[in-house]
Amino acid sequence: MRTFVRMRLWGYQLTEHDPTKPWIVLGSEHRTIELPEERAFFEWANEAWPRDRYTVTLDPGQLSPWGLSASH
To answer: Which end of the chain is more exposed for a tag (fewer CB within 10 A), N or C?
Structure first.
């Protein structure tokens, strides 16, 4: 018997800052990640992108019930 895990697609903006001068932006890019529905996005983001060097901002609409979903 197969077990299916529902996944959700998250769109976000990743911004890298100079760790010694956090007001200086070293780069910025748009990314997407597919996570299991039960996995909290910001928990994952804080583990993947340390806050002392990166800022992660969700795309508009991601927190609404109509946000992008890999299952739709």
So the answer is: N
